[in-house]
Design a protein that fits this description.
Helix content is 82%, strand content 0%. The chain has 173 residues and is mainly alpha-helical.
C-alpha cells in the first residue's frame, strides 16, 4: 500500500468517526458543520485514492451543506437548488468518467439531495439504503476500505431504524 493510500484510509477513518458523532448534536447548525467536515475528509480520502467521481461529489455535497446551513437567507431558500445540485452531479459524473461505476457517487448524491427536500422519512431511509449499495459498490472498485466500513455501518443504521420504527408502528396501532 502506498503512502497516499494509507493517508486516504486515515482520512476515511476520521470521516467515519465524524459520521458516528454527527447526529449526537442537538442543533441542526452543528450537525451541518460536522457534515461539512465529513465532506472535506471524504473528499480528501477519495482524491488520494484517485477516485475522482466521489471526490467531486463530496465537494458538491459540501456546497449543498453550505446552502442548507444558510437556508435562512433569501438566495438559499429557493427550490432551484435541488436541480442545481443534481445538474452539478450529472456534470461531475461526465467529467470524471472512468467506467460505469463512476456514475454511482453522482446518483447517490442526487438521491440524497432529493431526500433532503422531501418530508417522508420512510422514503429517505429507502434512498439511504440505495445510496449505501451504490457507494459500497463504488468503494470496491476504487479500493476504499474505509468507505466499505462506513457504508456498512450506515446500512446497518438505516436497517435498524426501519425495523425499530416498524415495530413502534405495530405497538401504536
Amino acid at each position: 500500500m502506498t503512502l497516499a493510500q494509507i493517508a486516504a484510509q486515515v482520512f476515511g477513518a476520521i470521516g467515519i468517526l465524524v459520521f458516528i458523532i454527527l447526529y449526537q448534536f442537538n442543533d441542526m447548525k452543528n450537525v451541518l458543520k460536522a457534515k461539512m467536515s465529513m465532506d472535506v475528509l471524504w473528499a480528501a480520502h477519495y482524491l488520494l485514492l484517485g477516485a475522482y467521481s466521489a471526490f467531486a461529489t463530496n465537494l458538491i455535497c459540501l456546497g449543498r451543506e453550505l446552502v442548507f446551513f444558510n437556508d435562512d437567507k433569501k438566495p438559499f431558500k429557493s427550490k432551484a437548488w435541488l436541480w442545481i445540485f443534481i445538474a452539478f452531479n450529472i456534470v461531475s459524473a461526465i467529467l470524471t468518467w472512468k467506467g460505469f461505476y463512476s456514475i454511482f457517487p453522482a446518483v447517490a448524491s442526487s438521491l440524497a439531495t432529493v431526500s433532503f427536500h422531501q418530508k417522508n422519512i420512510t422514503v429517505a431511509r429507502i434512498i439511504g439504503i440505495t445510496n449505501n449499495i451504490l457507494m459500497f459498490t463504488y468503494d470496491i472498485f476504487v479500493g476504499s476500505y474505509m468507505g466499505l466500513v462506513g457504508e456498512t455501518l450506515a446500512f446497518i443504521s438505516v436497517i435498524l431504524a426501519i425495523f425499530r420504527n416498524a415495530r413502534k408502528s405495530k405497538t401504536t396501532a
